[in-house]
Amino acid sequence: MSASTLPLAADLMRAASESCLEAGRLALDLFRPGAQTAARTWAKSGGSPVTEADIGVDTFLRVRLSALLPEAAWLSEETVDDAQRLTHRFVWVVDPIDGTRAYMSGSPDWAVCVALLDEGAPILGVVHAPACDATYTAVAGSGARRNGEPIRTSSVRTLADARIAGPKPMLDALARVQPFEAVGKIPSLALRLTRIADATIDAGLISPDARDWDLAAADLVLREAGGRLSSGDGGAVTYNRPAPVHGMLVASAGALATPLLETLAQLHGQQQPR
Fold this sequence. Notes:
This protein is about 30% helix and about 25% strand. By secondary structure, it is of the alpha+beta class. The protein folds into two domains: about 5-150, Fructose-1,6-Bisphosphatase, subunit A, domain 1 (Fructose-1,6-Bisphosphatase, Chain A, domain 1), CATH 3.30.540.10; about 160-270, D-Maltodextrin-Binding Protein, domain 2.
């Protein structure tokens, strides 16, 4: 089933977007621009931080989204994984706050992310960044939008003209092969992708260990805006696997994808033992 034949696709997108907007308002209640959050915080078992806002938004969205499409399974950063999702055609993939560290420190670069997968492929995506006054939406085959207005990636074709975001070690390594303009860190992976989608930047590098919930919604926005997300060797990104974890990823405007991947391959070749 494609997004165009999903029953009441337009209504589903509208309801999912409204749910994300309301979830964003819940998170904003404890967000303090330029200052530490008012939310209670603690460390998860792996050491990554979580706040009461993450948990509250996750709970809210699970109730809302499950009611919208009861046959869909659930995968979220803040919910214990249930392997039953692997047997479901539709899966909601949610990051209640992508960029928790940014949220905690008062940076506006965090977002509420919701994607709907059909057989492992995102067909609906919402990335809502309330502190940035930006809501990105996409339905497969219908284009991407920012605050309701259509968006497209840039037309940059060469790395020399590109603005690229990512972890500093990765950018430094790439710069040794080809100069480009490195941009400031974007802590939310979803916003790193959507800012390629709206041509704020041209490309982004993502270090290994990103998860489905960091990527799925923004991946669809980027693709519908004319961009591309792939593995470091150009392979396709797939979702709802038993382990929803990814290796190194590369995101870019469509015209920049080939030269960027070729340059990364050249860099990888230089790093091979002799």
